[in-house]
Amino acid sequence: QKWVNREISNFDYLIQLNTMAGRTYNDLAQYPVFPWILRDYTSEELDLNNPAVFRDLSKPIGVVNEKNAKTVKDKYENFEDPLGMIDKFHYGTHYSNAAGVMHYLIRVEPFTTLHIQLQSGRFDCADRQFHSVPATWQALMDNPNDVKELIPEFFYFPEFLENQNGFNLGQLQISKEMVNDVVLPKWAHSPEDFIYKHRKALESEYVSAHLHEWIDLIFGYKQRGPAAVEALNVFYYCTYEGAVDLDALTDEKERKALEGMINNFGQTPCQL
């Protein structure tokens, strides 16, 4: 009610929903999830009065680019599990998982160390690092298998965009550029400026009017069941609350494997 009356910000509302749905900063597998809200990362100026600069919040990030919708639909319709255990799904990866959180926060500890542990003791290759905001968005548009949403830090924490610790993150294969600070959109003149404008975009009139559409997909009625199928919003079965009864698994190995999968793969928030 407070949110509807505009007594709390969109940011606060999203944090509260995340908390109610079991998300927490203390668990990388269930880190708070925030939406990509813009799609203009190339203009010199960001015009928040122009609806065209915003992402379509009514669609899962995997199909914001119309071109990917057919691939995603076909994958779902043609999926057949010979053992009959795995339900059909649109996405084999998730919009929020531990590796994704470390991907974004690689320049800040303790996430740097956690990332290195995940990659068997070294940094992942430079081309796969989070090195540019525009390039990350472009990759999402080109690849229906990349469905990462954002983390709250994109709206308040400029330091994660800077390589203040001077880590050697390697060089990009094609341009031979060293990966250092994150490359920002042209309209952002510094990490602080990016955060300021990005947060302003989150609180803008357009987002306030459409945010509920994204909330339906992540936390609400389009999260599962027929509404999720129609919205092209079905994820691999293991990600859903209650999909697997771990206590019923007697085989210790199988149980460990499933636990690992759930932890690394990402979890869908509890349905609110």
From TrEMBL:
UniProt signal peptide: none
Tagged with keyword Mitochondrion: no
Family matches, as PROSITE patterns: BEACH
Keywords assigned: Repeat, WD repeat
InterPro entries attached to this UniProt entry: BEACH_dom, BEACH_dom_sf, BEACH_Domain
Gene3D superfamilies named among the record's database cross-references: BEACH domain (1.10.1540.10)
Gene Ontology CC terms, in alphabetical order: cytosol; membrane
Molecular function as annotated in GO: protein kinase binding
Keyword Hydrolase appears in the UniProt entry: no
Residue intervals of the BEACH domain: 1-272
Pfam families according to UniProt: Beach
A Gene Ontology BP annotation from the UniProt entry: intracellular protein localization
SUPFAM superfamilies: BEACH domain
Superkingdom of the organism of origin: Eukaryota
Record protein name field: NBEL1 protein
Phylogenetic lineage: Eukaryota, Metazoa, Chordata, Craniata, Vertebrata
Gene symbol of the encoding locus: Nbeal1_0
